[in-house]
Amino acid sequence: MAKVGHPRNVKTPEIMWELFQKYAADVKANPRFKMVFVGKDGAERREELERPLTIEGFKSYCYDNVGTIHQYLVNQDGMYDEYLTVCSRIREAIRLDQIEGGMVGQYNHSITQRLNNLTDKVEQTNITQPLFPDVPEDNSNK
User: Fold this and answer.
1) Which CATH class is domain 13-115?
2) Residues in contact with 110: Cβ distance below 8 Å, sequence separation at least 6, in sequence order
3) Over the chain, what HEC string results?
4) What is the pLDDT of residue 83?
5) How far apart are CA 69 and CA 24, in angstroms?
6) Mean pLDDT, contiguous 10-residue spans, the chain (142 residues)
7) What residues pair up with 34 in beta bridges, in sequence order?
8) Whose CA is closest to 48, among 33, 36, 29?
9) pLDDT at 1
10) How many Å apart are CA 16 and CA 80, to the nearest integer?
11) CA–CA distance, 129 with 10 (Å, rounded to integer)
12) Which residue pairs from 108-117 have beta carbons closer than 8 angstroms and sit at least 24 positions apart in sequence?
């Protein structure tokens, strides 16, 4: 009996990795631009900004080229177990690009921290500080 379901958009994990490499090359070759004004006359100039790799960008790139890949990334119904390693590698490569870019100031470090769960956690405890530490506490009213 024939297998029921849709044909796979990405035939093999190797093809998934090739798609990611093409996505990464495309992102780095096509920067964004920001308008800046330079000098006392405010001469208009375009400043080139490198684009970071993102999982959303990769999904969009794949959607435009082969179709949706969401089910591969979430291993929908355990049907994509053979893609687990390549999907993990893709997530790690994206995270590495974002973290390193944030560390060198290439990308906004605050956004990079939040996207990658790198925010500092501050534990705050309330300590009662007496107003006049040299005066003994009057316990007669208690």
Assistant:
1) mainly alpha
2) none
3) CCCCCCCCCCCCHHHHHHHHHHHHHHHHHCCEEEEEEECCCCEEEEEEECCCCCHHHHHHHHHHHCCCCHHHHHCHHHCCHHHHHHHHHHHHHHHHHHHHHHHCCCCCHHHHHHHCCCCCCCCCCCCCCCCCCCCCCCCCCC
4) 95
5) 16
6) 67 96 96 87 86 95 94 89 95 92 82 73 70 67 59
7) 47
8) 33
9) 42
10) 12
11) 63
12) 112/52
Could you tell me which residues are beta bridge partners of residue 33?
48
Determine the pLDDT at residue 47.
87
CA–CA separation, 37 vs 46, rounded Å? 9
* Cα 82 from Cα 84, distance rounded (Å): 6
Q: What is the pLDDT of residue 36?
A: 87
Cβ count within 10 A of residue 23: 21
- CA 24 to mean position of chain CA atoms: 14
From the CB of residue 79, how many other CB atoms can be counted at a distance below 10 Å?
12
Give the predicted TM-score (pTM) of the model: 0.72
Residues paired with residue 43 on neighbouring β-strands, in sequence order: 38
Domain positions in the chain are 13-115
Question: What is the structure's pLDDT at 140?
Answer: 62
